[in-house]
Amino acid sequence: MFKKTAIVLASVGALGVASGCTTTEQTTAAGAIGGAALGTAIGGNVESAALGAIAGGAGGFVLGKSTERKNYCVYEDSRGRRYEAECPRNYR
Fold it and tell me: What span is annotated as the signal peptide, if there is one (predicted)?
């Protein structure tokens, strides 16, 4: 019963994360959800799920922060290839 509930909660959480969040927020939430699911599968209790969520969330946060580039914009060249470069001055 607990495993089924955890899977449903993880699925609902994943849908919520997919929209309107920054990359760091998405990777943090995805890590926490995955960690909780893994902790539940391994330990089968609430404590294992909580520890998995904490570890997964921390890992997801570090991963998200490492991929974040401030003051960079995504551009597309004439052939449709995307690339990143510094944003123009005074760009918000």
Answer: 1-20
Which residues are bridge partners to 55 per DSSP? none
Dihedral angle at the C-alpha atoms of 89, 84, 56, 12, nearest 10 degrees?
Answer: 90
Average pLDDT across each block of 10 residues of the chain; the chain has 92 residues. List them in order.
62 62 84 91 90 92 81 87 85 69
* Every domain of the chain and the residues it spans: 2-86
Contact 63, 27 (CB under 8 A): yes
Q: What is the pTM of this model?
A: 0.58
Long-range contact list for 19-26, CB < 8 A, 24+ apart?
22/64, 22/68, 23/64, 23/67, 23/68, 24/61, 24/64, 24/65, 24/68, 25/64, 26/64
In angstroms, rounded to a whole number, what is the distance separating the alpha carbons of residues 27 and 9?
17
Q: CA 25, 26, 27 angle in degrees (round to 5)?
A: 95
